[in-house]
Prior knowledge:
Immunoglobulin-like, elongated, 2 domains, alpha+beta, 5 helices, three-stranded antiparallel β-sheet, 246 residues
Amino acid sequence: MARHKLPHIAAVLAAAFLLAMATACSDPFSYTLPPDVSKWATHKRLHKTIENLPEPERTRMTDFVARLSADPPKSLPPRTIRDAINAQIEYEMDRTIAKAEAIAEAERVRCANRFALDKIEQYVDLRVVKMSFEKAKPDTPETIRLSLQLRNRGPAPLTHVAGKLTFEQGGKTIFEIGFKHEGKLGPGDALSFDRGIVYDPIQEAHRLMAEAIEADGLIAVWHPDMAAFADGTTYEIKPIPPLAET
């Protein structure tokens, strides 16, 4: 009688084994990723397995594959889809934290810049007191002549100032020049500067400046970058750090 039961027992064990194998194969989270990342983009079984994932795991796994495919690592330790999804979650969390930190740092710099700009505009005055377009003479070419005045309105001697002047017509900037001065300028004192720009008719900006000067329609705007004083106080406009990529 026992002999008659052996085929039946073997059949049951075989069915149980096949069921176990089918259950393992039907779990997409247990699928081991192919070791060659460069072939992931065209690996049919990998993409078919990813399609069987629920959301949001499917999207995370798709992002993981795209990220590593764009910059394949030299070696990839054996890992399952479950491991990859966990790695993607950690990656996304790190990115979120980095972006939040970058946003906070950018806002901190903006606040510091607003404070510095207010102080520079309060203590340092640079203005264009006269603009003229001088016609050519036997010994000099046509020249755009700028008369500048720098005044220290601060409580301590000014030692260093830098920035730029933009020249605008109708709200549009048509030309700009850098400005930098080093040397002590006492409180309440002023310095005058003469800046000549040799006129080049080929340059559209020069033509527009000359026409605007003659029409009395050119406006100069001072954009300070920094100012330093003899008492050690320095105000500086710093660049806004870039935000973390999304």
